[in-house]
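debug: dumping io for the single-chain case to check the tokenizer round-trip. Nothing else runs in this session.
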Amino acid sequence: MRIGIIGGGAIGLFFSFELTKMGHDVTLYVRRKEQMLKLVKDGLSEKNHRAPIFLRTKLINELESHDILIICTKQHDIQEIISSITHLPYTTNVLFIQNGMGHVEWFDYLQMPIITGVIEYGVLKHSDTCYELTGEGKVKLAPVTITKNSLIEMIKSFHNESFKVEIEENWFRMLAEKLIINTVINPVTALFNVPNGAIVHNEYLLDISQSLCMEACEVLELPYTYMWERVQSIATKTSENISSMAKDVQLNRTTEIRGITGYIVQKANEPVPYTDFIYRCILAKEKESERRNEQ
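debug: decoded output
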């Protein structure tokens, strides 16, 4: 299968490595020429895997036609990516893999068959050419405008022991459940600069996290008890991991707060004080980072 992967972050590198290992014809599209040249020269490696793999790597503005296009960029890059793919054949299957739900609004802009997914693996990017798998999990995919049977046929060539894929029936429910987990873990760990496990080990962060979970569940109409158990389970399993948002804040990068917590704030019909406060806190940290970067 001819597969195009957009995004040279941790998830894009993980997908590229695994799908290339399976024998697919993979092209990785990255934003920076520096990363492209490094990948061409040194190949792509997983920290615990002996040898690197070499795959076709291009810049995003060199996008070609593929059987499936997998978008692994962050939420704030989606609008630009949508503009880049509208010229592709309408038969191109498009798979979105993002944290949050800000990208959902773009589904109506595309006439291609759309799939959306969430990833439960722990993945850490070490460099432009190397990532590390820090936690076992699975990739969950759900049909949006593609037929379920077409999706089933497609993933037959994706699934193996190191890249486990499952199909979900309800794409909104799948994204909403992952959104609640991200709404709790990501901003709390980013604001307080702590690993994931702190939200269950620190009694004060635990209280904040429970309140965030409750507000998000009310907005998205999901059961609080079930979701809070899932949040605690994931925070415990990934207790030493640094969330992607915490990493972004540490490195003075734009976060995905607008597509995660911002989505809850936008959809809320009743006050969500904890969510609104932590949303503004992360935006304030971004603003300070922008100011420092300009100096």
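debug: round-trip ok. DSSP finds eleven helices and eleven strands in the chain.
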